[in-house]
């Protein structure tokens, strides 16, 4: 049916490529492009010979002109951005210049600040509308599936949703003392930033990892969870009716947090450039270079993830509680696509988001977050493409 240009060749991109190749009715031809072409070629070598035709290209996605040339040459129907959040705007600019739809999994961030907000990308709304093209923002798991879960609950079960807790648990073990499950630089920037949540329309800020609770997750058991700032809070608070409070929680082990504290204490997680042997380096980027590559964790990781949303609200005047979640097994993911579950749970929804736009189900001129579209075809696709979800109307709540 169409052609997709996939930018990035890391952990998440690898899953997107595998899933596009499984879905060759929609993705007839793909082009994988990143700065290091050999990574793209290695992915192509794994999957060549199937129904989806694969090309590769070298591109620096910080360079809009180079992107425009590549888009004009390959002529994709959609660009799937699974490079880094720093490239979101240059890629959106290239899509505007060429009239091609856009999908990503993480909001734009400038290199020198870690703010996690949609302002920059929402500023493109009018330009995408005028160009008649769609930008779908945050089509990973969180953001992504979590937004679709909320839209589904709003559509089918609630008149108003008052409280949402998004719970992201990873009970996987890769055997390393310290490693991150996706790009270490992006991951550590997120965790070491101040926490925050939205209550009665206002952001409430906390110190990093200040609020901790314990939750007993279906299928993975009891875990420590910490309140984090997360980008989908901003869009869901606007797009879901009746929100009084919305929070985001993630699990971390004692071991992980102890390592992180030490690295923070010695300045290794800083994004302020320092002078080292006559060169400017960013300590966090250096740390990234010495940590295990997330793409290499696949064969070592055992255990499961559980990511979902607990919601409380009203239907026909009656109070209602609802929990919807996906459980994903690291080893099963590795067997299927050669990646661990964090890459898998991000890459599958990125492919599905692109499919929604390409098949016209979510095609509308402008810039949108996932919860602004009809959740039903996406929820159906999650079940079909490897991320089945479960629901409960009597979950344990997070006490205040
Ligand atoms: P990786 O670091 O594994 O991969 C990033 C890829 O981007 C690399 O292949 C890199 O290749 C490429 N890249 C970086 N800079 C450029 C550039 N200037 N031009 C072209 N390519 C570039 O990251 P992940 O795969 O773990 O993460 C990918 C994205 O997914 C990130 O934005 C992350 O925030 C997001 N994510 C979203 C989640 C969600 O649930 N929504 C969860 C997890 C991740 P090279 O260096 O060769 O160019």
TrEMBL record:
SUPFAM superfamilies in the cross-refs: NAD(P)-binding Rossmann-fold domains
Reading the lineage from the top rank, the first entry is Bacteria
Saccharopine dehydrogenase-like C-terminal domain span:
140-386
Residue ranges annotated for the Saccharopine dehydrogenase NADP binding domain, each copy included: 5-136
Q: Name one Pfam family in it.
A: Sacchrp_dh_NADP
PANTHER family with a match to the protein in the record: CARBOXYNORSPERMIDINE SYNTHASE
Its protein name is: Saccharopine dehydrogenase (NAD+, L-lysine forming)
